[in-house]
Write a structure and sequence with these properties.
There is one protein chain. With about 270 residues, the chain is mainly β. Helix content is about 0%, strand content about 40%. It folds into two domains: about 1-165, no CATH class; about 170-250, Sandwich (Immunoglobulin-like), CATH 2.60.40.1120. It has strands at about 1-5, 15, 25, 30, 45, 50, 55-60, 65-70, 75-80, 85, 100-105, 120, 125-130, 140-145, 155-160, 165, 170-180, 190, 200, 205-210, 215-225, 235-240, 245, 250. Strands 12-11-14-15 form a four-stranded antiparallel beta sheet, with no helix packed on it. Strands 17, 20, 23 and 24 form a four-stranded mixed beta sheet that branches. Strand 3 (about 25) and strand 4 form a beta hairpin. The mean pLDDT is about 80.
Length: about 270
C-alpha cells in the first residue's frame, strides 16, 4: 500500500495498492529478483499502470521504481534501485531483517570520514539496495553492515556506473549421505571458527553462509549430528564472494533395527 504525496502525471487516489511478486507469509519468504520491493516508511517515485482486472503494478518492474535519497545539502533526489545491493543471510540461509547498511567513499588511508553517502535497511527477507545517482563515478566504496545483535562488519566493493553491482556473501554447499546412498536428513554441519551451522534437508543437502567480511582461508568442516553418523571432517578453502561446493560427506550406515518378538501367552 502506497500513500501518495504528489502526482506528476495522470491522476491517482490518495492511497494505491500495488501488487508485486515475492513477499513473506509467516516464516516463509519468496524473493523475486528484478521485481520491485517495498519497505515501510521509505519514500519512492514510482511509475504505475492499472491492469484490466483493476489491480496496479509498477511499469517495467524495478525500472519503474526510484528511491528518494536525501543528499548532504538537504536536496531530495530520486535514484534508480538497480545499482548496488545484496541479501544479508544468517549461516543457515535465513534473511536478516532490519540490518542497517551504510556506504562511504574511502579517503586517504582507506578510512571513511563524515556522514555516510547512502544508507538503507534490510527488509524481511534480508534484501537491501544502495541506489547511487547516474553521475556517480567509478570508485571503491566501503560498506558498513550493522545487524541486530551482531558485531559491525566493514567490506569494500567497487561501484561501476550503469551496472547493477551485487555484494555476495561467501557460502559453502554440499550433501551428507549414508554409505548406502540414503540422504541424511536433519544433519548438522559445523564450520570451525564460525558461528551457526548448516542443516541438511530431505535430500541431504546443506548450505552455510559466511559473514560478509570473511577472507580467504582453509577451514575444517564437520558433521556433528546425528549421533553415530559423523564422517571424517574435511578441510576446505574459503573463496570470498563465491560459493564453494564441498565434496559429499559419507556417513556410516545406521545400525539395522532389532526386531521385537511379542510373546503370546494363553491362560
Amino acid at each position: 500500500m502506497i500513500q501518495v504525496e504528489e502526482t506528476w502525471l495522470g491522476s491517482s487516489p490518495s492511497v494505491v495498492i500495488v501488487e508485486t511478486f515475492g513477499g513473506t507469509v509467516g516464516s516463509y519468504t519468496v524473493v523475486a529478483h528484478g521485481f520491485p520491493s517495498f519497505q515501510e516508511g521509505e519514500r519512492l517515485v514510482v511509475f504505475l499502470d492499472e491492469r484490466q482486472d483493476g489491480t496496479t503494478e509498477v511499469v517495467g518492474y524495478r525500472l519503474g521504481q526510484y528511491r528518494v535519497v536525501a543528499k548532504r545539502l538537504g536536496q531530495d533526489i530520486p535514484v534508480p534501485t538497480l545499482e548496488n545491493g545484496g541479501t544479508l543471510l544468517t549461516p543457515d540461509g535465513r534473511g536478516v531483517a532490519n540490518a542497517r547498511i551504510y556506504a562511504w567513499r574511502p579517503v586517504s588511508g582507506g578510512r571513511p570520514v563524515g556522514a555516510a553517502l547512502f544508507a538503507y535497511r534490510t527488509d524481511a527477507s534480508g534484501q537491501w539496495v544502495l541506489a547511487f545517482p547516474d553521475d556517480f563515478p567509478r570508485s571503491e566504496v566501503r560498506v558498513r553492515v550493522r545487524a541486530p545483535g551482531q558485531p559491525t562488519v566493514w567490506v569494500r566493493t567497487e561501484i561501476l556506473p550503469g551496472r547493477t553491482n551485487s555484494l555476495r556473501q561467501t557460502s559453502f554447499t554440499g550433501a551428507v549421505l549414508y554409505q548406502s546412498g540414503v540422504p541424511v536428513e536433519g544433519g548438522r554441519v559445523q564450520v570451525e571458527g564460525f558461528p551457526g551451522r548448516g542443516v541438511t534437508d530431505a535430500d541431504g543437502r546443506w548450505s552455510y553462509i559466511f559473514p560478509l567480511d570473511t577472507s580467504e582461508m582453509p577451514v575444517a568442516v564437520r558433521v556433528t549430528h546425528p549421533p553415530g553418523a559423523q564422517p571424517p571432517e574435511r578441510v576446505v578453502n574459503v573463496a570470498p564472494r563465491s560459493t564453494v561446493h564441498v565434496p559429499v560427506f559419507e556417513a556410516p550406515n545406521p545400525p539395522a533395527p532389532i526386531p521385537t518378538i511379542k510373546e503370546n501367552r494363553h491362560a
